[in-house]
Amino acid sequence: MPFRSLTLQGPYRFLFPTSKDDLLLNPERHKYSLSTLMDMHAGSPLTHLEIPGYTAWSIPQATLQHLVHLGIRQASNLDKVTVFFENCVRLESLWISSEGDPSQTSVLLTALAANPEAFRHLTHLKLALAAPPDDDDGGTAAINELQKLTPFLLSKKKLRCLDWSEPWGSIEFMRPLLGSLSSLPQLEVLGLDLTCDHDDAAEMLKSGMLNQYIPKSLTALRLWVDYFDGRAPISNSLNTLLTGLTQLAFLWLDDYIRDPLAEPLTLAQSASSLQLLCHRDDFYEVLRTDAGVTLEPPWSFTKAVFPSVDDLGCADRYWLMNGHWEVIRDQLRRRGDTGGED
């Protein structure tokens, strides 16, 4: 039966290698298997593909030319990424994950810097890239790496959804990425992992300096915030940010349960257009009446872990949360095991 969308988790005995070593020892067998699968459906070409990274280079050229969405998990050998630049001429959505391998981060960002006009139709970009190793130069390595991404981002005038889902040291280190956001005129959906790993970074959050980077046009926002020694940088800056996001309909804030940045009801009251709020692992639908703002009871475990597009309100919100469900599952498991402690 023809299909247009394929998501493969691997490993599979016949289709995919059981390990990277298996791939190295038997590259032709696995390349042939994947190519055969694609060729079987040449009359109904794939447009949506998500696969493990060590199989990415087996995708036939004819398949690449039809892809609209490409997801590569645990990417490796990203020095070959120019194959995608040359062949993915219709690509609108790209998701690359290489957590745990800083060398792949540098390779990818260097390639993007050298090919800023690649993927000119891109509307959705999700990157989960390992940070450079810690250094003693004030974060220069991280800043330099992120600066490589800037030309690529600035050329993506159609980009509507951006998700940066890997913490890179402090907010200060992420200035090159944050500073690019205001130059993306279509940006509506944003996800950020932020770390306040020293007092200066915490002060940026407390003072509201972060707020100047967040576009006012957002309709959906995901914030994962880690703060110094687990102490919340308490201030009204987050409420001020949300008050200024007058079109924001969806928010996921992941902070510390013992020392939260804000309470759920306060978040809903600050964001005047908010319809759906996820605070850590609890989803609340927001009700607004003449009597004020209230929250519906949290979603059930099943609905929180396996929501539909309709549950979240639209496909872009579902896209934003994709890749983060395991965080919610882990928190729900811990809460169940410990009686609410995090």
UniProtKB/TrEMBL annotation:
Top-rank taxon, per record: Eukaryota
InterPro entries in the cross-refs: LRR_dom_sf (IPR032675)
Name under which the protein is recorded: F-box domain-containing protein
Source species: Fomitopsis schrenkii
